[in-house]
Amino acid sequence: MKKIEAIIRPAKVDDIREDLVKLGVQGLTAIEVRGFGRQKGHKEIYRGSEYQVSFQPKIKIEVVVDDSLEEKVIEVISKNAKTGQIGDGKIFVSDISNAVRIRTGEVGAEAL
Amino acid sequence: MKKKLSIIFGSLLGLIGMASTALAQEEAAINWADNTWIIVCSALVLLMTPGLAFFYGGMVRKKNVLSTLMHSVICMGVVSVLWVTYGYSTAFGTDISGLFGGCDFLFLKGVGAEEANGSISHMTFMIFQMMFAIITVALITGAIAERVKFGAMVLFVVLWASLIYNPLCHWVWGGGWIGDLGALDFAGGTVVHISSGVSALVFALVLGRRKSFGKEPMLPNNLSMTVLGAGILWFGWFGFNAGSELAMDGVATNAFLVTHLAAASGILGWCVIEKLGRGKSSVLGAASGAVAGLVAITPACGFVGAFPAILIGFAAGLFCYYGVQLKNKLGYDDALDVFGVHGVGGAWGALATGLFASTAVNSGGGDGLFFGGGFELIIKQAIAVGATIVFAMVGTFIILKVVQAVMGLRVSESEEEEGLDISQHGEEGYSI
């Protein structure tokens, strides 16, 4: 099993969800996060006072899938999240050693 | 439905009519229609203070939202009690050498509900004026948000209301020397806005800057609240300005119109200058511009017509925008721009009254520079503005030194970091 975490532009989350469901992904978690990368922050102006806001609002999605889906999930996320501008985000992949479905007690890939 | 309503209204009016005839026989001078209007206006003016709480509350960081609301709310508590106890008497009691009122109305002695004061009840007049005292003190609190100690702020409110507001109110409206001079202040440009604006500046200077001022971004927690607050202020301001005629007549109706137009053109002034200067007009700017226009028209609203009002409001949007920028240039931390909006807007409005006042609008007023009155009125206006500034600045400074000696003015550094909501009040605005 693989965990795929993607930090993306907030506006892209619905398209990604839709395409992941088509792939057969059974569930995902989306979290509102703030952070910075090469995009850095942005400026906000209140009554003429300029503030450099160094953390951008982003959405982080987390999805755990069977190894066989890894490439396709990455492809779907990349395709939907890409605008070509700085700030499109990043994808991180890691191994997952186990999973448990709490309701039934199923373990491993069965639990996904 | 309409018919039913008109029957109900008809019979209500009939009842009111009967009641007023009956009462008119007892107390000839009270016009109960005028009285009704001022009672309604009193409620409108009271509503400005919670409106102000929201206007200010939306602009602070989320850890200070409740404390900022509280600064306005506590004024409703403290000032109301002070006002009926001795405040009204020291402002409107029998004049003592043009400086303050006497003790005749202590504990509302002689302030009867059926006793006439002009064409309204004396008690109604006292109630209306009470609401002014509350909002004036509350205005100051915007400058000191996010770092003032709550107890110190309460003590300040007691002393400032007693020693600055009441005498000033007497000077202008209670038979004191500024009113005698012939300076015009219809609804409180000097008494309310200049006095609170410059006092706020002094308080901000004595208190010092917020820890993170100019270093970290200090983002507003919820500007939607600020826009709501500005709307409530605008609504209440109709009572503030049109009610200051103390009757329901042509001058009051004109005051209503010019109040609205100045707020409207204040929005335009601020939005235009923002667009030109920064490339974008903001909703915080629009709300600030509306308040700036309202502040500026306050002293003028009983004396100027619709088109001068549009000019006054538009210029207020511009002047207050620049007034607000001063803090970044000079480095003082007037947190929510009380001086920039109320000090600058109030001074502009008082002087603009000397430019645009016309006896065609109000025969009891005067003619300003642009209406054939020469420089006489504007000089009187300038004297009133100058005297208010000096008195409020010096008085506030002394009061602050006293409060500082008694209990200190600021919270500790760690309390400031934690936020005043938790450190001063033990509660949080947003808890997830």
Structure summary:
The complex is a heterodimer of chains A (112) and B (432). Chain A has 112 residues and is an alpha+beta fold. Chain A is built from two helices and six strands.
Walk me through what this model shows.
The complex is a heterodimer of chains A (112) and B (432). Chain A is α+β, with helices and mostly antiparallel strands. Chain A has one domain (2-111): Alpha-Beta Plaits. Chain A has helices at 13-23, 70-81; strands spanning 2-8, 29-35, 42-46, 49-53, 56-65, 89-95. In chain A, strand 3 and strand 4 (49-53) form a beta hairpin. In chain A, helix 1 (13-23) runs antiparallel to helix 2. Chain B has a single domain (30-420), classed as Orthogonal Bundle (Ammonium transporter fold), CATH 1.10.3430. Helices cover 69% and strands 2% of the residues of chain B. Chain B is built from 15 helices and four strands. In chain B, strand 1 and strand 2 form a beta hairpin. In chain B, helix 4 packs parallel to helix 7 (189-207). The longest helix of chain B is centred in the C-terminal third of the chain and has 32 residues, at 376-407.
Which characteristics define this entry?
heterodimer, A: 112 residues, alpha+beta, Alpha-Beta Plaits, 4-stranded antiparallel sheet, two-stranded antiparallel sheet, 2 helices, 21% helix, elongated, B: 432 residues, mainly alpha, Ammonium transporter fold, two-stranded antiparallel ribbon, 69% helix
Structural class of chain B: mainly alpha
The percent range for strand residues of chain B is under 5%
User: Strand sequence of the main sheet of chain A, in spatial order?
Assistant: 2-5-1-6
> So, CATH architecture of chain B?
Orthogonal Bundle
- Which percent range fits the helix content of chain A? 10-25%
Low-confidence stretches of chain A: none
| Widest β-sheet, arrangement of strands of chain B | 1-2
CATH topology of chain A: Alpha-Beta Plaits
Question: Mean pLDDT of chain A, nearest integer?
Answer: 93
DSSP summary: helix tally of chain A: 2
Termini gap of chain B: 48 Å
